[in-house]
Design goal:
The structure is a single chain. The protein has about 290 residues and is an alpha+beta fold. It folds into two domains: about 160 residues, no CATH class; about 100 residues. It is about 55% helix and about 10% strand. The chain is built from six helices and four strands; from the N terminus they run ααααααββββ. The protein has a four-stranded antiparallel β-sheet with strand order 1-2-3-4, with helices on one face. Strand 3 and strand 4 form a beta hairpin. Helix 2 runs antiparallel to helix 3.
Length: about 290
């Protein structure tokens, strides 16, 4: 007599459908993706902030540049944290399209607020900030999509137990590319010359004992440069929203004009409008 044996059930293939995958594995993959996205975003944000906050300081040694809101080192830390936050957003939702769309929308809002903060208030500046923030947000979509894709690749690499050099290769390449893009924030040659001229003029004005000792563009009564002011100041070069200084703008070369703004600690703001680096600026206190 043969002994009865239960029928053998052939092994079932593992489902590749995420909807049927075990909840534990899905949660683990989700957690790994979010950690990877955060770390990649942190590296990308740090690379961008490091270059963007230092490239003009290196090109203009000794000139105290205006770098809001936290200064160069605070901005680098803020950029890294912002990158990490966006990396987490890119990887948060299971749907890649949803993550990319929400991250791009938040990038647009953040860009709008940043531009509005830099160029001031008013209906005209609000419209200008809106116009500028939309293309910047669209330009961020490829980077956001790349961060999402790299986060998913990191999850796959961990499952395949790939060596660290292979895992890190693509994130490092992305960080280098973003750092190179940040290099386009270098001021133009004319802007650097105007900042140097403004710095020399402010230094001479701070050493002046009376109005006659001030540089020629600052001797006008309308400038009212305060003699004996404390030496702490920062300089900002800008060619956007110059109509807020409309009374200083010459009637010619509107498209070539730029402003250099000197902000003094606890004092007024000195604005000088340059038509070109080869002409004396028109200055006024605000």
């Amino acid at each position: 007599m043969t002994r009865w044996e239960p029928p053998r059930i052939p092994p079932q293939p593992v489902s590749r459908d995420p909807g049927r995958a075990p909840a534990r594995l899905l949660e683990q993959a989700r957690r790994e993706r979010r950690i990877a996205g955060t770390l990649i975003g942190l590296a990308v944000g740090f690379a961008y902030a490091l270059v963007s906050q230092n490239i003009n300081r290196i090109a203009l040694p000794g000139i105290p540049l205006y770098q809001p809101p936290l200064g160069p080192f605070g901005n680098i830390a803020l950029g890294a944290l912002a990158g990490g936050g966006f990396g987490l957003l890119c990887a948060w939702w299971d749907g890649a399209a949803q993550s990319i769309f929400i991250s791009a929308a938040i990038a647009a809002i953040g860009t709008f607020i940043g531009i509005r903060f830099r160029i001031g208030t008013g209906s005209a500046t609000t419209f200008a900030a809106l116009i500028l923030s939309v293309p910047i947000a669209w330009a961020s979509v490829p980077v956001i999509a790349l961060v999402r894709w790299l986060a998913e690749k990191q999850v796959e690499a961990r499952r395949e137990d790939l060596p660290w050099p292979r895992r890190l290769r693509l994130p490092v390449i992305l960080a280098v590319i973003v750092a190179l893009l940040a290099g386009f924030g270098l001021h133009s040659t004319d802007a650097r010359i105007e900042l140097q001229q403004m710095n020399a003029m402010v230094q001479a004005a701070l050493r002046a004992g009376d109005v006659s000792g001030l540089p020629a563009p600052l001797q006008d009564r309308s400038v009212n440069f305060p003699i004996g002011m404390a030496a702490g100041y920062t300089l900002e070069w800008t060619n956007s929203n110059l109509d807020r200084f409309i009374e200083l703008r010459p009637a010619t070369n509107y498209d070539q004009q730029a402003a250099v703004i000197a902000r003094f600690a606890g004092g007024p703001m000195l604005v000088c409008i340059y038509s070109s680096p080869r002409t004396d600026p028109t200055c006024g206190a605000y």
